Amino acid sequence: MLVSAGDDEIPVEGKEETTTRVLEAISCVLERLVTRNDRVLSSPDPVRNSGKGLSVFQGVRAPSISISKYLERIFKFTSCSPSCFVVGYIYMDRLVHRHPDSLVGSLNVHRLVLTSVMVASKVLDDEHYNNAFYARVGGISNSELNRLELELLFLLDFSVVVSSRVFESYCLHLEKEMKWNGINQRIDWNMSNSTGEETEISVGDTIQSSSPNAND
Amino acid sequence: MAAAAPGQLNLDESPSWGSRSVDCFEKLEQIGEGTYGQVYMAKEIRTGEIVALKKIRMDNEREGFPITAIREIKILKKLHHENVIQLKEIVTSPGPEKDEQGRSADGNKYKGSIYMVFEYMDHDLTGLADRPGMRFSVAQIKCYMRQLLTGLHYCHVNQVLHRDIKGSNLLIDNEGNLKLADFGLARSFSGDHNANLTNRVITLWYRVIMLWTDLQNCYLELQNMAQLSTCGLSDAFLQSFCMENQFCLGKTRMNMMGLSHPFDALALRFFSQSFDMILLHMPEQLNKIFELCGGPDEAIWPGVTKMPWYTNFKPTRPMKKRLREVFKHFDRHALELLERMLTLDPSQRISAKDALDAEYFWNDPLPCDPKSLPKYESSHEFQTKKKRQQQRQHEEMAKRQKLQHPPQHARLPPIQPTGQAHPQLRPGPNQPIHNSQPPVVAGPSHHYGKPRPSGGPNRYPPGGNPSGGYNPNRGGQGGGYSGGPYPQGRGPPYAASGMPGAGPRGGGGGGGSGGGYGVGAPNYPQAGPYGSGSGAGRGPNMIGGNRNQQYGWQQ
Question: Name one GO biological process term (chain A) (predicted).
Answer without folding.
Answer: cell division
